[in-house]
Specification:
The protein is an alpha/beta fold and 299 residues long. It folds into two domains: 200 residues, no CATH class; 84 residues. 44% of the residues lie in helices and 15% in strands. The chain contains nine helices and six strands; from the N terminus they run ααβββαβββαααααα. Strands 1-2-3-4-6-5 form a six-stranded mixed sheet, with helices on both faces. A hairpin with a 4-residue loop joins strand 2 and strand 3. Helix 6 packs antiparallel against helix 7 and helix 7 runs antiparallel to helix 8. The radius of gyration is 22 Å and the shape is globular. The two termini are 43 Å apart.
Length: 299
């Protein structure tokens, strides 16, 4: 039986990082992320409704929005599934936070505060040759690598790339990642003796600490997450199975070379039909199958 909450749920992620009373947990994580660069002394949680909303993200994406004592902003997001135009979406998110800093009037001279996007990915980042735990993107000269601006920064954390055991973690950042990735299977909170923040984390994430109302909301968030991921997995599997069968039949009739091409197309179409029947959004179907949203709408 699980002892701690699942941080990949909406309730779990926001209980750890999105509560004013527990904002020291988020502060500690951000400082571990930026260790050696800077030390954040305080953060203020902001209204995340200022961020762009995407209907299809709900149930798979959760975000926290905060600012530090210098006015620099942090968008911390947990994503359980890839998105259509995933990288473009993160650029848009952070660009919106930059654009909102603009002020009317003659006195404003484009003074900007830095915006950091911290993206936990519970999947491998798409269109990337090398998968690693941390990918740090900055605006720099392509040839000299000289920093052009420090106002926009993307930090992607690919959780599937982290395979260290408890005793192999070398710093606080890795300890945080180990705990988050394994939390819902742990029976004790590691690293308590090394840092007090993990002792507090244990109290925050214990299922026994939830009220009855909180527990009901948590159970519902678990159900939503499981249902969405199960629907995607079922639709993908069904589509692949039907597509392969029809593709093989078409291939035998029209020749091996042409059949392979037709089979791949039919497989994508069948895959898309299965996903559409399961209620998956067209943009996610497009990302998975490679078909255009216009084609999907006509199926």
């Amino acid at each position: 039986m699980a002892k701690f909450i699942n941080p990949f749920t909406d309730i779990g992620f926001k209980r750890i990082f999105g509560q004013e009373i527990n904002k020291d947990l988020l502060l500690d994580f951000l400082n571990s992320l930026l260790e050696g660069e800077r030390k954040i002394k305080n953060i203020t949680l902001l209204d995340k409704e200022q961020l762009p909303e995407y209907e299809n993200d709900r149930g798979l994406t959760y975000d926290i929005y905060c600012t530090d004592e210098n006015g620099e902003q942090f968008i911390v997001e947990m994503q359980n599934q890839g998105h259509l135009n995933f990288k473009d979406r993160t650029v848009y998110y952070l660009s919106q936070a930059i654009a909102r800093q603009g002020k009317k009037g003659k006195k404003w001279r484009y003074q900007l505060k830095a915006v950091y996007g911290v993206f936990f990915l519970n999947f491998n980042m798409p269109n990337t040759q090398q998968h690693k735990l941390r990918t740090d993107i900055v605006l720099a000269d392509r040839d000299t690598h000289e920093l052009y601006s420090d106002k926009l920064r993307f930090i992607f954390i690919e959780l599937p790339a982290f395979n260290k055991e408890e005793n192999e973690c070398e710093n606080d950042f890795e300890r945080w990642i180990y705990v988050l990735k394994n939390m819902d299977t742990l029976q004790r909170m590691p690293f308590r003796a090394q840092k007090a923040v993990f002792e507090k984390l244990e109290k925050v994430v214990e299922l026994a600490s939830l009220s009855q109302e909180e527990l009901e909301k948590y159970d519902e968030s678990i159900k939503i997450l499981r249902d969405r991921l199960s629907e995607l997995a079922y639709a993908q599997a069904k589509g692949r199975e039907e597509g392969r069968a029809e593709g093989r039949a078409e291939g035998r009739a029209e020749g091996r070379a042409e059949g392979r091409a037709e089979g791949e197309t039919l497989e994508r179409v069948k895959n898309a039909r299965g996903m559409k029947a399961a209620g998956i959004a067209p943009d996610l179907i497009s990302q998975i199958t490679g078909l255009t949203t216009e084609t999907i709408e006509k199926l």
